[in-house]
Each structure stands twice: as structure tokens, then as C-alpha cells.
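Example 3.
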Amino acid sequence: MKRVFGPASAFPALASMAGVTVFAVLFLHAESQEEVMGLTLGAAAALLLLARFGWNALAAVSFAGHSRTGQAAVLIGVLIIAAVFYDQHFPLLMLASVLLYIVVCLGLNLQFGYAGVLNFAGAAFFGVGCYTAAVLTSHTSLPHLAVVLIGGLMAAGIGSLLILPVLRTHGHYAALVTIAFSILFRVFLEVNDTLGGPQGMKVQGMEILGWKLNDSLAFGEIEISFYANYVVLALVMAAVAFMLVRRLERSWIGLNLDAVRLDETACAAFGIDVARWKITAFTLGNFLTGLAGSVYAMMTGFVAPNSFTFGDSLILVSIVILGGLGNPWGLSVAAAIVLMLPEKLQFIQEYRLLLYAALVILILLFRPGGLMPRQVRSYLPGWKP
Amino acid sequence: MSTLLTCDSLSMRFGGLVALNQLSLAVSAGEILGLIGPNGSGKTTFFNVITGIYQASEGRVDYLGHDLARMRAQDIYRAGVTRTFQRSRLCLPLSIFDNLMIGNHRRLNHSLWFNLVRRSAFRAQFEEQYAQALALVRTFSQSLAERLFEAAGSVNMIDRRRIEICRALISQPTLLLLDEPSAGMTHEETRELMDDILIVREHMPGLAIIIIEHEMNVIERITERCIVLNYGQKICEGPYAQVAADRQVQEAYLGTE
């Protein structure tokens, strides 16, 4: 296959993206359980088969060589999927949710994948963003863009309360600190009547400079679901967060974060300030999580403590591990799989956590690098020695 | 030569164990000093104390006007003291170039603005550092220089040791501490490595080296002066020939015939 498309060709990347887009459309379109199951197994088989013929490696090389074209293809792919389901609420809601979860997982990836700070309170920080949006939209008339920003800042700020114990402990113990916080957060929400207690709160739909995201658009006969607005917004957020994380990784800062994760003693011997970089990664990660949370709350119109359990945090961590620690592309794919599969395969719903747990164990045993293992850092896209 | 480092009655105690006992010594700029002695005599502890990994129980380490015994490891590195470790401490999943840049920390710009937004300035700094790293690694091994963007874990032990020494050299330190660079290598490989270190040193006038080594022909060949430790105390000091002839040193370390 290499002879057919030289390493310089953008074709494998574009063809792969086209395939993924068509599959996503078919998958979201499928109604019966048999259809969904068939598509899932078919896709898995096709991937394995293509891997045998060396296609996957070829596509990876092609993506790396044409990163701009590849990224544009991904954006267009998402927009095509949104366009196909323009009048249906459910697929668009799911698409927007996946995009927002990608933002969250990018944040977790900064913390865990790079700096090695395991955060089992991802859902709690997401919840901080959600509740910030709920409180601010119902009690103040702040512009909603400011609300989203404050949602991110609140998550980062509350995260900074945990920084001291996280810095003073290592590995598993630091993880325990975040688990404790995740449980505390949920209990706090349930007993707090101002925040609606177990019943939760309503959240207003988003409005940016007169653009009401909860109004459906109509062009003559054609009526577009209002969720399409959120897909566009979430896509912009995911793209910006993605670019931020990529740039961070491809810089001296990304190197510092990796060094902090791998060897703290060597860090100290070469002047790398372990605390500074752990704080940077933790705060930035929580900020992204909070941003995504506040948009998510405005999209769904409702928040309740039940959505921010320890189990939800575990799912977020499993997405990052499944995709390949430190690989933003991997976690994006994993987020789509982990969120969409149980929604479409109803019988999985109840066994969801069990399945994820099994999947994570299998991945750690047989493919510790995840579905798409991270490659050695290249500082400048396309740069060759 | 001017004095670079002076230790004054330096002691390090772990509970009841005295690892360094009232050690006093001086190192001149540009000198190569050998540190020898039996296992557990306090050689590596001495490195850990002057690089700030351990906090000395008492005493001073004067280095260009700083007291290293009271400084944090990061600040000691910034002042120009670097080291290698007895057991290799490379970040194996990272590329060889990444590992070198960890050693180059004090010469890189770490601000968020520079790294995230000013990408063309970043590119310039990256290319400059790449050229320097390439030149340094070439002194040691041409084949290694061609593999800078491969994972450090993918090369053999000798190359890993070379990377570790380059990591300690790339920031152009004033004092280099080598902790058993020959461990796990053959005589021939060790000789080659030492020659390479001496070549690099010619381009860095004033670089002083303290080397811990059990391979006596290395010590004999490259050091100008030796200090022998036993139970954390200095038992002898002088050129290798003189030290090797000392009866106390023979009893404690080299063995008598």
C-alpha cells in the first residue's frame, strides 16, 4: 500500500476521515439493536482488517504529514454529521455532548497524561461549572459568555483548594485526595437547599450577543434543531482546547510536565520546579473542565447532583486511558465510543460501568498505550532533523 | 587556579548513622578530582548533599559565594552544578532530545506566553538548541546523534550513559559530578567514554569535574588529584600514585598484597 500512496500523500488521512464520517452517520441513524450491534462489530472487524494491510499506520503517517488538512477534514466531518441530522434533537445533543466531553478529557489529559496528577474528581469539577451556570443564569443578568468563563475560573479556583494536599502526597495518595473531594462535592450538593438539593436546578438556555442558542432556526420549510447551535459552539470550544493542549505538549512546558510525571528527583537535579508544573497542569485542566460544564448545563437546561458521581469521574479517567494517555486524538475517539455506544445499545446501559472496568483492565493488560498510543514528541509540526 | 568549591566540616547523619563525618575539601576551577573509597564510605551521599537532594546536618559548602548546603536542588543547578546518577535516571519514554533538554532547563524560556503564543520565537530557540544538542552528542557518538528523536529507552546501556552525561553537560555547567560513569561497561567502552568527556572539556575551560569511580585505571588516567573516603571521613588526599601507595588506603580499599 505504501507504494500506491507515497508517505507524502494526504489521501489516506482524508479517506479515513470520510470513512469515519459515513460510519458515524450510519451509526447515529441506526434504530434497531441488531443494526447497532452489527455496525459496531462490523467497524471493529474492518479496523482489524485494515490494520493487517497496514492502512492504519499509513493513515497515521498521512495525518502527521498533513496535520492542517487532517484537522480541517475532522472539522468538516463533524459539520457533515450535524448537517445530516439537522432536524433531530437526539443525535445533535449527543454530538455536542461528545464534543464537550472531549474538552473535559483534554483537561484531564493535561493533568494525568502529562503531569501525572491523577484526578478522580473530573465529574465534580464539571459539576462546579454546571452549578455556576445554574446559579448565575437564574440569579444574575451577567452575559452568558462571562458566565462560561466564570464557570471555568470557579472550577480552577476550587481545584486550587486541593492543590496543597495533592502536592504533599504522591501517586495513589494524591488520587485519594481527589476521590474524597468528588464524594464531598456530591454530598454537599444533596444537602444544600439553596442549590436545589437532590432535585437540582433549572438552567437558562445560552444567549451570546443576542444569538439565542435555545431557539430553533427556520429557513422557510426547513426547521433546524436548536441543538445545532450547541454543536457549533462545542465544536469551536473543542477545537480551541485541542489546539491549546497540542501547543502545550509541543513546547518546553510539555517537556517539563512529562519530566515531572516520570522522575521528580531528576527534575530537582535539573531545576524543574515540580510544584509549579503540577499546579499549572491541575489548574488549567480544571479550568477547561469547568468551561465545558457550564456550557453543558445551559444546553441541557437542568442540573442535579446525580450527574456528578464518583462513577462519572471514573468514566472520564477511563476515556483518557482508553484513548492513549497523552494523545489528544486518542481521547477524542475514545470519548465518542464511550459516550455513544451505551446510548445506542440500550442493553449495555445497565452494565455500563462493568463494561468500562473490564475494557480498561483489558487495555492496560494488552495495550498499555491505549487505542492510539502516544508518539515521541515532535516540537514543530512537519519539522525534520 | 582559583578555588571553585570549598567544603568545611560537612556532616550528614541519618539517625544514628554518620554518612559524612566532618569532611573538608577544596576543588579548583578546571580540575578533575577523583573520589574513591569502599562501598558505603559516603561518596554518593557527598554528591547528594552538594546537589541539594539531602540537607546537610552541619557544615558549609562554599561555591562561588553561595552556600550549597542551604540551597534547594533547583537553585544549585541554576548556579551551574550538574550531575549524573549512579543508577541511570533517564526518562525512557521520552526522546533522547527531550532528555537532553531536561538538562538544559536553565537556558530555556518557560513562560506560557512564549511557549503557547510566540511560536516563531519558540521555533528559533528550538532550532538553536537542536544544533547545540546535535554538536554535543556528535562528540560522543555519530550514530546516537542520528537518533535524537527516538525514545531514550530504545538505545543500549552505553548510549544511555552517554545521554546522561550529555544531559549534565549541555547547560554548560561550572562543576560536573560524575557518579560511577563506568558502571556496567567494558574497559574499552569506559576508555572511549572518558576520552569523549576530555574532548568536551577542552571546549569548556574552567569546567571542574568530580568523579566517583571504582575503576582504578580510569582514576589514574584522568584525575589530577584523589580524595579517599572511609566511613564518611577523608583518609587520604593527593595524586593517584601517592594515594595508591598509602598504607591506610590499601588496608581500607585497594587491598594489600
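Chain B has two domains: 1-80+173-257, 94-167. Chain B touches chain A through 43 residues (CB under 8 Å).
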